[in-house]
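Subject line: Sequence and fold of a protein, written as structure tokens
Area: Proteins and the way their chains fold up in space.
Start of record: The labelled sequence and token lines come straight after this line.
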Amino acid sequence: MPYIDPAVILEAKKMDLLTYLKNYEPYELVRFSGNTYTTKTHDSLKISNGKWMWWSRGFGGRNALDYLIKVKGMDFLEAVETIVGHTAVQPPVYAKQPPKEDKPLTLPNKSATNKVISEYLFGRGIDREIIHYCIDNGLIFESLPYHNIVFVGFDEKHKPMYAAYRSTNKYKIMGDCSGSKKDYSFRIGNVDSDEVHLFECAIDLLSYATLEKLNGGNWKKLNLVSLSGVYSPAKKIEDSKVPIALQKYLSTHPSVKRILLHFDNDTAGRKATQTLKVILPSEYEVVDKPPQKGKDFNDFLCIRMGITPHKNYERSEAR
């Protein structure tokens, strides 16, 4: 591959897709609504807030360089030369990105009962006492009209600030509710302790609490925090940032000195563990405690209880 000055590559990466299309392919740009655009060729490709997503193909990118490579099929060198060539002839006028809106959290309507989500969680091995505790404290509820389970995170004043939904059937649909702040992800426990347990998702958190009870421990004396998704480190570990949910928790719980990582037994989980062990300040003792069996803690719990994954879904659908 011919040599390209790193400064030239960096400059090419700075150009967002909206700026590129407005300056060099205006015929391709179509306003979809508000500050969201699409393209004439691909109407399922949406451009908003400096990023783009090609929904029909299930992938997106952060800049024009990604677009030229992933959508137009150019190789890296050709894509860089295309952007540099355009800018040499006509310096770009950068599109103004709208300020990020601080949207209020929008929660779905609640079902009159929590029967569906209770059976769903119980079908995945979660202890009844823990399920009822979460319902009674507003940490989970059943939504309408789809009877999804909603996991809620609160701030220090017990105001809902985060909510994630997950389907209770085999389709595994999931996502964050509009206006969610991941600083306040789903968590259980606010005891004065020198340690916190960290999980990728709420189901694993609840599974760990159940295992603690099965082992004769007191799960209510644990501080359990979910990251609400897989943590993705930067390409260079040292450039990675501490997950915002963990940052927030540590800032409001100065007594914490020990962080136990309960991430999955897969490539992403192991990489996330390795990264946090490197980038967290030395004042914290960081301990890797993955599940002893299975991919994640719900797998481990199901193995412990003799529940197979397909039965989890069958049980939750048998109304």
